[in-house]
Design goal:
single chain; about 450 residues; mainly alpha; about 65% helix; globular
């Protein structure tokens, strides 16, 4: 009944104090997973699970946090903005259009309405989260750091607690962790890394090193191979974007590569234990164990079936609420009702369910947001680190890499942080494209503005 209590309290609070409620819900969304198997289930159920009687009475499957988010959105849309808002590009406005079109195509092809909604809820509530973030941003840098680091710290501690009390040495222990948790931890590590280079306090640097180690061990504890992919892409993008400290990053990168090579060699044959999971993920791509080979084979067959289905409907797709055709049969996975609706490769899912217009629009939003983040990362004062731009840019790359191998666009908890970051990049100061001309000694560029390289 905690879900009902959360809704009855959260919805009025969302209408009375939308800003504080939005920040609290977002914090809890990052910190707590759905469907947990440890002490945190009490809080997770309040966020994600209505009692059966209420769930059956609702026309669609919704989470309690989503109901509170809708209340916050309504309140923010009704109230006039307290300050000017950045414009929203047309490509973002097209997202609800292609989602509605995919839903209509699905219904026309005989799709199941609630299944179609469950598939679309990730994109739907990404839109809701974007609206909320667009209305309440900006917040202070201290508040943003506190929210991000504290929520991922709680998530990592819960993950470690579950590992040592429930899933340690469990053959299928990775099933006890949400798909998106490694991605959130990877983004948290980028956030901590940027904070490390941004502060001059030795004490804070020490705490951030501890924070990074805790998150890394927690990521290993999930046992999800996709988490290793997220971690590697996060580290790569962080190194590329924080070029201002290249003198520091180069020796760190060299030492890190040597240590990583030694680690992979030492744990190449490891199957269990948190510390051996990244090595297992790398080995599985070249010499998979029986367990990983079975998973690889399943995903290869699934991808073949999805591509073959797309070829039958390359423009419109099959629509939301319709399964892909199993040209090669897949083994049934008990308890996964969405098995034949949401394939692991979520980029293909976009094309499968939303057609060419849908995948073009969603990837277009990603490209726009990434470009804004990269542009903002280039605008800095001497000695300054464009922290928000670096975190967002690295996170966008991690998200797209992860979406190729696991559930992402169909997951409202996974997409919500990236919807917030899309709103963030709209307010970042970016570098305008100047007119190419000769620059004289009398020229004084405006603050935050740099001339086009080669124009001088």
């Amino acid at each position: 009944m905690q879900a009902l209590a959360f809704t009855l309290i959260g919805v009025p609070l969302g209408l009375i104090a939308p800003r504080a409620t939005a920040l609290a819900v977002f914090w809890a969304l990052v910190a707590f997973e759905p469907t947990t198997v440890d002490w945190s289930s009490f809080i997770s159920d309040a966020l994600y699970l209505y009692p059966t009687a209420i769930a059956d009475a609702l026309p669609f499957t919704v989470y309690p946090w989503e109901m509170v988010a809708l209340a916050v959105t309504v309140r923010l849309l009704i109230a006039p903005p307290t300050q000017s808002r950045p414009g929203v590009p047309l490509i973002i406005w097209l997202v609800p259009v292609v989602v509605a079109s995919g839903y209509a195509v699905g219904l026309a092809n005989g799709g199941l309405p609630n299944i179609g909604y469950i598939e679309a809820r990730g994109l739907i509530f990404a839109g809701v989260t974007f609206i909320v973030a667009h209305r309440i941003l900006p917040i202070s840098a201290r508040s943003a750091w506190t929210l991000a680091i504290s929520s991922t710290t709680v998530l990592s501690l819960i993950t470690l607690s579950r590992y040592f009390t429930v899933t340690r040495n469990n053959f299928q222990g990775d099933l006890a962790y949400a798909h998106e948790t490694p991605v959130l931890l990877a983004v948290g590590m980028v956030t901590g890394g940027v904070a490390f280079f941004s502060t001059k306090s030795f004490g804070l640097k020490f705490l951030l090193v501890v924070y990074e180690i805790v998150l890394l061990i927690a990521m290993m504890s999930t046992g999800r191979r996709a988490g290793t992919l997220a971690f590697l892409f996060a580290g790569l993008m962080f190194a590329i974007l924080i070029v201002q400290h290249r003198r520091v990053m180069i020796p760190i990168a060299i030492v890190g590569l040597i240590a990583f090579a030694a680690y992979v060699g030492a744990f190449w044959n490891s199957e269990f234990g948190a510390i051996g999971q990244p090595a297992r993920a790398i080995r599985s791509q070249f010499s998979p164990s029986e367990r990983d080979l079975s998973s690889n084979t399943y995903r290869a067959i699934e991808t073949y079936d999805v591509i073959a289905t797309i070829r039958l409907n390359p423009v419109t797709g099959v629509g939301l609420g319709n399964p892909f055709i199993t040209f090669i049969p897949l083994p049934a996975i008990g308890g996964w009702t969405m098995q034949f609706f949401t394939p692991h490769d979520n980029l293909l899912w976009l094309w499968l369910k939303l057609g060419l217009p849908g995948i073009s629009v969603v990837i277009g939003v990603w490209m726009f947001a990434l470009a804004r983040a990269f542009e903002a990362a280039r605008v800095r004062r001497a000695g300054e680190i464009p922290a928000a731009a670096i975190v967002c840019g690295a996170a966008f790359v991690v998200a797209l890499a992860y979406a190729q191998v696991d559930q992402f666009f169909v997951n409202s908890r996974a997409l919500a942080p990236f919807a917030v970051m899309t709103a963030v990049v709209l307010i970042l100061k970016t570098q305008p494209v100047p007119v190419v001309r000769l620059v004289t000694a009398e020229d004084r560029p405006a603050e935050g503005y740099r001339y086009f390289p080669g124009a001088v």
